[in-house]
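Section 3.1 - Work completed
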Amino acid sequence: MYHNFKMVATTMFGLEEVLATELTNLGAQDVEIGVRNVSFVGDKGFMYKANIALRTAIRILKPIKRFKVFDEDDLYKKIQQIEWERFMNVDSTFAIGAVVNSKNFTTNSHYISLKSKDAIADYFRHKYHKRPNVDVKHPDLKIHVHIHKDLCSISLDSSGDSLHKRGYRNLTNIAPINEVLAAGLVLLSGYRGDCNFIDPMCGSGTILIEAAMIANNIPANINRKEFGFENWEDYDEDLFFKIQDVLLKKITNSHFKIMGFDKAPSAVRKAKENIENANLSEFIGVHHINFFNSAKEVFGKTTILFNPPYGERLDIDINQFYKNIGDTLKGGYPDSTVWFITSNKEAIKHVGLRTSKRIPLKNGDLDCVYVRYDIYEGSRKAKKLKKNNETDADNLEEE
């Protein structure tokens, strides 16, 4: 029987509640929302499950020590007091990442990483007359040092590479959306595979792939080659495969359409290849179509979700571009819930539709807003008129 311990899942700004819901649904205990992170309790098997299944987590950290810290020398001494043999040996390779938010430390995060690295290397040198090597690219153990005011947390990174590296995306375009953000956008939209789904400016297909995995309950990181915990001293391979099998048995089948358009043939090619890498070709169709010359060809309720150009990198009249988006949606996409993310809060006014929801998010360093528009079967005016006529007819019958 494995014992429970506290873990921290890091995420992007604005996705904390989505991640907390994911963790609760997965079976985590004592879920608590922080800023860009969610803490929770689970055992070793749950740590494996969280890494394989979570869509909006960037890393799953396992804290091993917390202490008060006053300066660099104090940090060095306290890191040396940890029994590092429990987590690695003298032949292991390691790497350290640090985040510092404290007036006690005038140095930058890089210096804190170096100081922590020296403390661990010297610990082994004093005891075994040999130092473990640092390997920044493929370490056996990735360690996180987080200092906030006078509190320091030392954690082991169970994920290794960031969890946004799903393992399916070989080809990208100029400004590819991060996979974790793409999954977060789909989950925030409420889409769960229960209606049609369109990304009208699909680029290399990331949003489509994340949507298809959500629609069919496919674990987000099932295509990953490796997780950090696989190199840990206490890695349990049988348990890992057992957890993976249980998750694979929960895959479902959505029968609604998932479609992507792009006006660039190169983007369509890249999207198709990435979709094939993710083993999702049977669920997603990608077409060489200019959205502005398109209309909705599927019946029934549809979620439209896209990440249009913000104007930062492209030489276009962004106000006119956003006006064209609004006109195309109004004219050709009835009975749709539309979501898109942008950092251009001025240009969004030119869409010419009323937003029914606005959610602040970050895309990299950019402050963004994620907006929702509801496009009805007819116009609101026509809908209201129809309703009034029906009411008048009912009243006449009653008379």
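Second construct:
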Amino acid sequence: MVSESVKAAGPNRWLQLVAGIVCMVAAANIQYSWTLFVPEIVSANTWTRASVQVAFTVFVVVQTWATPIVGYFIDKYGPRNVVLMGGLFTGLSWVLNSYASTLPALYFAAAVGGIGVGCVYATCVNSALKWFPDRRGLAVGLTAAGYGSGTVVTILPIAAMIKSSGYHETFFTFGLIQGAVIVAAALFLTAPTGKDVTYSSTVAQSRRDYTLGEALRTPVFWVMLTMFTLTVTGGLMAVAQLGVIAEDLGVKHVEVNLYFFAMAALPFALMLDRILNGFSRPFFGWISDHIGREKTMFFAFMMEGIGIVALGTFGHNPWAFIILSGIVFLAWGEVYSLFSATAADTFGSKHIGKIYGMLYCAKGIAALLVPVANLLMEATGSWTVVLYTVAAMDMTAAIAALLVLKPLLARHHRLNEARALKARAATV
């Protein structure tokens, strides 16, 4: 598509990006540190592992399915106010967890956290998409990386505090910290004007701003929703269950030696996974800015599928568990940069908060499969069936990226160009 140059924003848009990343880092613990708390919660109460994991599902479902509503509030009240509210709810969630003595209380706290993180995540992604149409893959990748790898600096402190002070006090302390950081960073957020952006000259991007209703009536939206659901399932299951998988595979407490230091396989894998999960988002987003979204999707999704198969086959070896889980997270994290960037390219940025909010509901659908995966494992006595199933889903999405999504997007942009030419001709 022909480039449309608009005066680029000054340093302010980079400040917006940094503020959004800080918010995402502070919000990341609720999802990515949850696996550290599950064994402690189970051992301290009479609850089953599956019932405790329902809280994770509640969190993800609320976070994702509230996103379209959050998109409405972003447009109405602006990013700063929405993220301020998100910070308050995000901190409150873990404070409530610290007092939860019943499963309903745990589930309620998870729902509060879902609302909070939903406000933070949707707003910061929306901001990156709007401020950086010329570098959408990279900008939204960096923003999503804050969420994907934000816990790399807190994994060890949280694990140490759980061990020394118990999970109740850990929830309370880190809840206050993460809420305060989000509120402070939110004060810097603002929305761009029409003069603040530059469009890409290498990726086809719609100059027409679709409404949510118009986007929902296009076949390309539903193809992306299906692919998003297929790919996000495997990674989300790994996020929630990695500690459990490590325990069942017999590698959780096995110490690996790197000559200059030694660490148990699970915390080592968690640290590596957070780094790779965060790195993958800007890395694959940057690649997609240059070679296209669909080709990048194919390579990444196929890598994830192969990595999951290998994890199920060789995961009993602690080194294989660490390396292969890292590959899975490397190839999974980019879904949050690729699909959001593709959605903005396809439907414009004016209403992208609502549109990507609907697309992001794929994560909520996938979250419903997390407890099912646990029950399936208990029924079969092995993670093999679960891992092979989600690997097949990833590979299906990889093939669909080239054979289904790519031709649909080409047709979509051709129709937009034809409408634009017809409109210009009518005004002559």
